[in-house]
Amino acid sequence: MAVWQQIEEALSRALGEPFTARERRPLGGGCINEAFRVQGRDRTLFIKLNSADGLEMFSAEAAGLAAILASASVRAPRPIAWGIAGGRSWLALECIAFAPSRSDSSALLGEQLAAMHRCTAQAFGWERDNTIGASPQYNTWTQDWAVFFRDQRIGRQLQLAREGGLAGDTLERLQHLQEAIPRLLDGHCPQPSLLHGDLWAGNWATTGDGCPVIFDPAVYYGDREADLAMTELFGGFDSSFYRAYRGAWPLQPGYATRKRLYNLYHVLNHFNLFGGSYASQARTLADRLLGELR
Ligand code: ADP
Fold it and tell me: Which protein residues touch ligand 1 with a CB less than 6 Å away?
């Protein structure tokens, strides 16, 4: 098949030695891409495929994984190569053998995530835009966190929602909330921390020796509480994770309110990706946040 032949040729160039697949096994579990475990003679790779316009997304994912690896804090798959083959985009990563977590894996993840968050930048944003799920995520460097979150996070998602048909009272409330973000974050001055950016329970796992691994990131430098907020949005992280994180780096007063604001970004993104009841969930969050301003 032309696609795989071209991928193998590109991988051989990237690895500096011939790579030929002995076995290609499709994997489930992803939300966006087709994924395969591809076994060569000396190494096994994890390869994702998408349509040709997914190349930017894949190269940004590789850059995000490289940034996490450079922080030397949490394990993440090493990016190997990416490109276009037979009209499809592809990304090859080190394939990691996952196993059931051990009793101390969550606590280790908490500690290691705090260590990753200690990697900071001079401003909020990142060197490039990337994606959150299948939506664009804009990372224009910004000095002020409230301005960044208002314009690059809530503002961009609201724009998409408007284009997708969100209107009326719900849109008005959300726009009102967007304008209120500097007041909601008044007095909160986080450092720009390296974030995973899409840290739900489906984006971490453990190796056989209990070592946590994070993958499929939407990296940027932002308030570390945004990563923690997302772990709480869909659940799946146990109390030892939070205890270990807070033990390594306590959270600031007011987190409970900011958590709702930060998760509004993901709820709006879910509305833009999947529609349905996410609009009313966003509306409820906005009402609650606006209520707290009074
Ligand atoms: P998508 O981009 O489609 O959401 P993911 O990156 O989340 O795909 O990967 C899909 C699934 O494949 C994950 O849930 C995980 O179980 C597995 N996986 C992800 N990365 C690796 C890897 N480097 N090695 C082995 N398995 C992986």
Answer: 27, 29-33, 35, 46, 48, 77, 93-96, 202, 205, 215-216
Q: Are 35 and 216 in contact (CB under 8 A)?
A: no
Query: Do 163 and 17 belong to one domain?
Result: no
The domain in which residue 269 lies consists of 105-291
User: How many A from CA of 218 to the centre of ligand 1?
Assistant: 14
Q: What is the CATH number of the domain that holds 224?
A: 3.90.1200.10
Collapse the DSSP code of 37 into the 3-class scheme (helix H, G, I; strand E, B; otherwise coil) and give the result.
Answer: strand
- Number of domains present in the structure of the chain: 2
- Asked whether 193 and 67 are in contact (CB, 8 A), the reply is no
**Of 34, 69, 94, which residue constitutes the final position of a domain?**
94
32 pLDDT exceeds 90? no
Minimum-distance ligand 1 atom for the alpha carbon of 27: 12
Pairing mode, strands 79-85 and 44-51 = unpaired
CA separation for the pair 202, 210 (Å, rounded): 16
Over residues 185-208, the pLDDT tens digits come to 999 999 999 999 999 999 999 999
Residues identified as active-site: 198
Taking the CA atoms of residue 29, residue 34, residue 40 and residue 45 in that order, the dihedral angle to the nearest 10 degrees is -60
Same domain, 33 and 79: yes
Say if 100 falls within a structural domain.
Answer: no
CA distance readout (Å), 151 to 93, 102, 163, 253: 33, 40, 16, 24
